Amino acid sequence: MFFVASCRTRCRAKHGAGNLTYSIVVEMENAKSINEDEIGVSFSALAREIEAVTTTGQYLKPEVIVVHSGPDTDTPLLRHRLTEIVPQLGMVANTVFSACTGGRYYEVKNAGAALAKGDIVIFCDSDTVIEDGWLSALLKPLQDPKTIAVNGYTYLGCDDFASRTFALLWFFPLRDGDRRFASKRAMNANNCAFRRSWLAGHPFPASNGFKVSCTLLTSQLRASGHDFVRVDARASHYPPRGWRFFFWRALVTGRDADRKYVALASPSQAARVLKATRRWFSTSWKVGGRILTHATRLGMPAWQIPFALIVGLAFCALVFCAQAAMALGLVRDEVENVPLYVGHS
Questions:
Q1: Does the model's pTM come out above 0.85?
Q2: Could you tell me which of 103, 117, 153 has the C-alpha nearest to residue 24?
Q3: How far apart are CA 230 and CA 171, in angstroms?
Q4: pLDDT at site 7
Q5: What is the Cα–Cα distance from 327 to 322, expressed in whole angstroms?
Q6: Could you state, in order of their start, the residue ranges of all structural domains in the chain?
Q7: CATH class of domain segment(s) 11-237
Q8: CA–CA gap between residue 224 and residue 222 (Å, rounded)
Q9: How far apart are CA 187 and CA 230, in angstroms?
Q10: CA–CA separation, 311 vs 307, rounded Å?
């Protein structure tokens, strides 16, 4: 018996943790809003994490599926350029490059997942930088066959007044000291993993919204009797830049909030307007509290805090206006695309 157990142990070490295979899908849609150096940092961090779990014998060499929304003719150029920037990626993973021409964020992710061959499909984005231990933290819970989905911990990078304010009012928790918010955080589409057998029948649902599909997928996951296992797999998201982005993101957040309410709660106009009003008050209170509680932790000088409060409350007011306008039928439910003018996203 000891000999058999010993052989099994050696076999697992040789062939990876329980022979569990995984594929990583990286969308290039968000890469439009960052520069080439930042893309290199993101993919270098990914290569480092893959190497860390492969060289220790934990897992087999994975596939990394890079999907862009341009024409097919751009694929060879993307492969060549990324190989130049991050040559180590091709050494630690089998790389696949594909086009989802004209695809939006979630459509690009679905296209990548459809190509995946691993038992596990991991999603990360081209504008996030993963931290040490990220990959092993995501994969560990999936050793249990009962686990269907795992959710990581994405936070917004910040280095000036605007980005610190964004971080405090954003839907991501802060990197440190924000466990309560993180424990309630919904799905991070840029930092999560699914068992492919479940995901194959539950792609990101179609929606005109900008960031609605992840909420709808979370609803499907819970309806099927499962939920996310939340782990400390951390990744930083490059900070938004520019007030034009601030204005657009607030409006699209409001429209998306109404779309989510219609899809998951009620299409009633009166109920939607009431929801928008209640959400305005609750989010204003939460944003104000977060700014007062956490601003100094992010390095914001005390004199900037009142201005951050004004910006945060203005964001909430814009969200309300957009949500109420959608509920009242003053704005049509059209496909949301990132305007060229918004810059960093």
A1: yes
A2: 117
A3: 16
A4: 38
A5: 9
A6: 11-237, 243-342
A7: alpha beta
A8: 5
A9: 9
A10: 6
Q: What is the pLDDT of residue 18?
A: 57
The pLDDT value recorded for residue 341 is 72
Percent of the chain with pLDDT over 70: 93
For residue 8, what pLDDT is reported?
Answer: 38
**Please, which residues have CB within 8 angstroms of residue 324's CB and are 6 or more apart in sequence?**
254, 273, 276, 277
The closest alpha carbon to 111, from 204, 43, 198, 188, belongs to 204
Distance CA 344, CA 241 (A): 5
pLDDT of residue 10: 42
Radius of gyration of the chain (CA): 21
Q: Do 114 and 199 form a contact (C-beta atoms < 8 A)?
A: no
What distance in Å separates the CA atoms of residue 213 and residue 204, rounded to the nearest whole number? Answer: 6
Lowest mean pLDDT of 18-27, 99-108, 192-201, 279-288, name the range: 18-27
Q: Is the pLDDT of residue 84 over 80?
A: yes
| pLDDT, tens digit (0-9, with 9 covering 90-100), for 190-231 | 999 999 999 999 999 999 999 999 999 999 999 999 999 999
Q: What angle do CA 31, 34, 40 make, to 5 degrees?
A: 75
Q: Distance between CA atoms of 88 and 94, rounded to whole angstroms? A: 11
**Cα 322 from Cα 250, distance rounded (Å):** 8
- Across 3-22, average pLDDT: 51
CA 228/CA 185 separation, integer angstroms? 10
- Sequential DSSP letters for 192-260: EEEEHHHHTT-PPPP-SSSS-HHHHHHHHHHHTT--EEEEEEEEEEPPP-SHHHHHHHHHHHHHHHHHH
Q: Mapping DSSP to helix (H, G, I), strand (E, B) and coil, where does residue 12 land?
A: helix
Collect all residues with Cβ–Cβ distance below 8 Å to 110 and sequence separation of at least 6. Answer: 203, 204
